[in-house]
Amino acid sequence: MEKIIIIGAGIVGLATAYKLLEAEPDLKITIIEKEKDICKHQTGNNSGVIHSGIYYKPGSLKAQNCRKGYQKLIDFCDINGIEYDLCGKIIVAVDEKEIPYLNNLYERGVANGLERMKKLSAAELKEYEPNVNGVSGIFVPQTGIIDYKQVGKKLKELLIEKGVEFKFGEAVKKIKSKSESKSKEKIIEVGTDKCNYSADFVISCAGLHSDRVARMTNPNLNVRIIPFRGEYYKISEERKNLVKNLIYPVPDPAFPFLGVHFTRMIDGKVEAGPNAVLAFKREGYKKTDINIPDSIETFAWPGFRKVMYKYWRTGLGEFHRSFSKKAFVIALQRLLPAIKEEYLVHGGAGIRAQACDKYGGLVDDFLFEEQENVLHVLNAPSPAATSSLAIGEEIAKRVRMNKDYGSRVRV
Predict the structure, then answer these.
(1) Nearest Cα to Cα of residue 43 among 381, 393, 396, 391
(2) Are strands 186-192 and 172-179 parallel, antiparallel or unpaired?
(3) What is the DSSP letter of 252?
(4) 120 and 185 in a common domain
């Protein structure tokens, strides 16, 4: 019976185990997680959007897996009684200069197979969101809302039923390959701060620490994870009716994030945000969270210094909004003029694990590194939660089809 170790119990790691067992029920799988339970970081600290796939370059891994994963996620929720709502969203051009970018988004959505999208005039925007400000827009019916923690909880339950063993509270410290003297087959040894394990194949889905785990098998890895914190406000209960569903801006083509937006969540609350500020700790959910080794690692990476040089003005603006509620509100008022400072209460924050190459490129697609008997998921930010079951299926296919990977990277 083959043994597989999965590092990381976020939604991608859980979905990978689920899809591996769907294809080969006799596999023996162990999931190692340094936290005390599943989904404690990116999966458990996002706004719960089911993404349509409109933003992603046609043919990219993000585009392909988002569309495949979208339907797999919906089917999984239907079978297992998990609540979701395909409420749709509007993407809004607030002035005439944004209309060409809006049209490009529409064409990208068509190329990615989205149907029933609708271009909206300023008057039609008001039919969807009466309080929105815009000159034109797109309605995307496929977008929805969900609680991904509930998806993770159900996956964990199903995996335990199938015999998967979870090792919580153990941080991986080493991954080492060794040959079995009798069979001459290679065995992978994974050492944690508590125990050593052996497996025929290791899959790393380590999120915010994915580059560090990958460097255990490839010390010359040419990407680093740069942590960006996204901070949210919530609209007060008395004013949350200002937003019916989801309102997004046209993304700034000069900045690799979506910009502040409004999201109705599955529990009925409405989030406003996020910004995107550099975090000085890999798991730094508060402004005061600072980890000196994490920060040194970030600033020492030549690729990040190039990113900082390119985006320093935008970055300063994000930090300003982080410390000034008034500035945050001004940004929100571009989409929703009726919003006021007193309508907002502090919400949560999430950390985006963004891979950055040494040349200053922020990796814009899912990124895997495959070596002999090891596969690392190196970059899986949004829409990884929506895509998780498709990503898991893709990983399972690679493990099944090729047990003897040559060292290579695929983007």
Answers:
(1) 381
(2) antiparallel
(3) P
(4) no
